[in-house]
Amino acid sequence: MDASSLTVARRRLLPPLEAALQDYLSxxxxxxxxxxxxxxxxxxxxxxxxxAPAAAHYGMMxxxxxxxxxxxxxxxxxxGKRLRPLLCLLAAEACGxxxxxxxxxxxxxxxxxxxxxxxxxxxxxxxxxxxxxxVWSLWGQAQGINVGDGMHVLAxxxxxPLAEQGxxxxxVLRLVGQLAETxxxxxxxxxxxxxxxxxxxVSPAEYLDMIARKSASLLSCSTVAGALIAGSDxxxxxxxxxxxxxxxxxxxxxxxxxxxxxxxxxxxxPAGDLYRKKKTLPTLYxxxxxxxxxxxxxxxxxxxxxxxxxxxxRALRALDRSGARRYCEHMIxxxxxxxxxxxxxxxxxxxxxxxxxxxxQLETREV
Length: 367
What we know:
Blueprint: H1 4-31, H2 44-64, H3 83-94, H4 99-123, E1 128-129, E2 132-133, H5 135-139, H6 141-159, H7 169-196, H8 204-229, H9 234-261, H10 272-275, H11 281-289, H12 292-303, H13 309-322, H14 324-342, H15 350-364
Antiparallel strand pairs: 1-2
């Protein structure tokens, strides 16, 4: 599939998406003082004085999204891939809806995704994201939790303007329910991920179930949202749900490969996930297949307080002998083929072409 279809789609859809996100968060910041009650004896100066911290609440969100610096001044920082809203907009277009109809849902999906990232950074004790300090590392864990909570609520409020775009009230209600179920599913996945840190018997099957909840569920929700907004029938909606699910599984396993054999964004050195003792599909597959010596090397890595270069080198050799990378590449290929097959249920269109090209790009990406 010609990758140019995806390039054209990104150039066309991502700028208005970014503008919609910025507008939504800016309106939240501007409206903050309205929610501060005036005491009977408080003057205007007092209200303005306490309004600034409320506005900073939204400023922290905008910092995380890449628009402000640590002083809450305008900045241009990495914003992430915006993959989930892009999937929503392309799915809506592929099913016959206009981009403007789906934009509120695209905003909601990106906010929900970023709420989960803000909380994940706290739970994983990650101080850096996209080469910048994380929200909690700048303003503390309590503020980080609160900023994530606020973004979570804003995600649901962002869906309400769908009614102004001609989406029926019943569909809006269904989308709210879908977003809530997905949010709960993400927390289930995070619960499993955190519990795996204390276990040495996690199987590859358990890991795949975890990433299906934590990662793939939101990609599936994104494509389903686009289909529902377009008023698609059960067949197309189901196909797009399965497309997002399969794409999400492959996307996460590619991340797992890059976390070991690529370059870590946080450490700037290879095998970053091994230094951080992350249990991902390659290591869990190797543990399930390795001979005694290699299994011992992997368990020693996870048991170490701070793995050194020798620990990581032994673990890498164990992974190589087990064929873990080859297995993971095979899994990605299988998920990608299944995802592309689902798109056969859609009519030919530039949006469908872009979804196909996106699948190929995510399957083979190196960053």
